[in-house]
Known about the structure:
The structure is a single chain. The chain is mainly β. The chain folds into two domains: 28-136, Immunoglobulin-like; 141-263, Sandwich (Immunoglobulin-like). It has helices at residues 2-19, 43-49, and strands at 28-37, 52-59, 62-70, 78-84, 86-95, 100-103, 106-109, 115-124, 131-136, 141-147, 157-163, 168-170, 175-176, 182-187, 198-204, 212-220, 226-236, 242-247, 257-261, 267-271. A hairpin with a 5-residue loop joins strand 19 (257-261) and strand 20 (267-271). The longest helix is centred in the first third of the chain and has 18 residues, at 2-19. It is elongated, with a radius of gyration of 27 Å. The chain starts with a helix and ends with a strand. Mean pLDDT is 86; it is low at 1-19 and 264-272.
Amino acid sequence: MKKTMVAVLTALVMVGCNAHLVEPIQGSKTMTFRVYEQEAMTRAALEDACSNLNYYRFVGGELVNNIAQTSADEDFGTITDKMDYGTHELYFIGHKAGSVTMTDGVATFDKVNDTFSYYASVVVDEDSDPSMAISMPRRVAKFELVAADALPTTLSTVVVTIEGAATALDVKSGLGASVATQTKTITVPTSNIGKTNCTFGSYVFLPDGVEEVDVTYTFKDADGGTLSEHAFSDVPMATNYITRYTGNAFSDDFNGAVTAQNEWGGENDFSF
């Protein structure tokens, strides 16, 4: 009799324990993300800002989906992805580079360019809204040198060297990944020779805490000889702002003005 009672009680305890076990809800949902640049919620504005859009989805640190679009695609700016219930890390990158690679949340481009991005950790379940609007802020700062004097006939290329900024983007933070020297060569169109007020620009990502960089512009002839060179130290830079130096590029004295401006709403002026 005692053995029977023990068996019955054990069965009741097991039933009671099992009654409190909650199985996770299994399922999936097709999610649609409509991606925009930061200022205007239109496809036209996105196309103006970006020629390429990359989407990455990670689950538990593993890449499970990767979608690449160009502005020529009919669905440019609309990402559709069937996602299992659970937590997903989403990375959106809009840019004008030829290629981009993602490693450990860091985006590296074949060239630093005008770049927008957005990161989100999203929980998908039966109650999730299947549609989300994604607004991507601009992640770069830009330096421009405006040559006020006429470009000489012997000018062929402009070499731009920027020290103190980054060439890769930490998409999660929106900041430059690590400090690296950037060198860029700009080929001068023959149609610009003889013109004044020509602009030569470069983009950079700014790491956390970086507010100044060093910039050198070297103007070269077709044989690689230096026609003129100007170095600027402690140049003020800020993400989403353009810092513009204007002056005579082909004289020993640059003798110009410095402007730091945000083309999207406000400006600060400097002189030297």
